[in-house]
Amino acid sequence: MSIQERLLKLRERMRDNEIDIYIVPTADFHQTEYVGEYFKARKYITNFSGSAGTAVITADEAKLWVDGRYFIQAAKQLEGTTVELMKINEPKVPTIEKYLADTLKEGGNIGFDGRVVAMGTGISYEKIAAEKKGKLVYQYDLIDEIWEERPALSQEPAWILEQSYAGETTADKLSRIRTFMKENGADLHILTTLDDICWTLNMRGNDIEFFPLVLSYAIITREQVKLYIDESKLDKEAKALAAAAAATIAVCGSSFCSSAVAVAATVDAADSIADANKVNMKRGGVWHFASFHKKLPEMLHSFPAAF
User: Fold this and answer.
1) What CATH code is carried by the domain that includes residue 92?
2) Which range of residues forms the domain containing residue 272?
3) Do the beta carbons of residue 224 and residue 249 sit within 8 Å?
């Protein structure tokens, strides 16, 4: 299927869901810099294979924003696709937000897959839609609906890093984190970025190209850590080491997808610390954290760099 054919199918889905502008970023569910094959939705819909860029599709336009690293590559890969190259920071090239504000019609809706858009970014899109008396529609992954034979999520195993390599025990790290939580009146801390999770738990894997990270979520409470992960990634030895390292780690769910349901349910029930640029935006379904984005201030707390 050509890029033009894919865009045609996407626009059909947009009409079906009353979406006027659909945004496809370069991101996974954790705002990771490099994404696995499953998450290369922007490449699928534009043909651009660079590591950064955002596609914006309307009923009659398709545009791709990239920075200076990719001007030449994108220009070549977009040939014949009908996708227009938007060179970031070049004269007369609007930002994505300015384009959305200028293009969205009164009462129009902005859509995206909320699993791959950070809450901070989503809130900025929400303001633009609200100014036009429209709304966000972020419960649908429209690319998935048209992507035939989409690659599977990584099934690479995870392992626990020995203290001789990690330099500090998980228990010590958790102690420092919980001290900060207590000082700020938080019942739990939500971890959604993979480097934060793997650092805290001294866990490693091969789910992300160039980085030894594992697809997962984690919630730290005053008493325990809940690790949301595809349980098949952890063998008996890894589970035992994890339990020994943190004493209270509870692996939740038989699969990454089903276990994420519990994350949202837990978040709604407590005062939480999170980072608006690291927590994703989706409301409803199995992958969401936006169920609490209305409860927290726009400038959410995050741990200092020392952590």
Assistant:
1) 3.40.350.10
2) 159-292
3) yes
- Of the residues 124, 146, 168, which one is the last residue of a structural domain? 146
Instruction: Name the domain count of the chain.
Output: 2
Q: What is the pTM of this model?
A: 0.81
Q: What is the pLDDT of residue 118?
A: 86
List of the chain residues with pLDDT < 70: 242, 244-307
Q: How far apart are the first and last CA of the chain?
A: 47
pLDDT number for residue 244: 67
Give the per-residue pLDDT at 197: 92
Give whole-number Cα distances, 290 to 122, 127, 293, 296, in Å. 10, 15, 5, 10
* Cα 74 to Cα 64: distance, rounded to the nearest angstrom: 9
Long-range CB contact pairs, 235-240, < 8 A, 24+ = 235/157, 238/157, 238/158, 238/159, 238/160
Cα 77 to Cα 55: distance, rounded to the nearest angstrom:
14
Identify the pLDDT of residue 274: 56
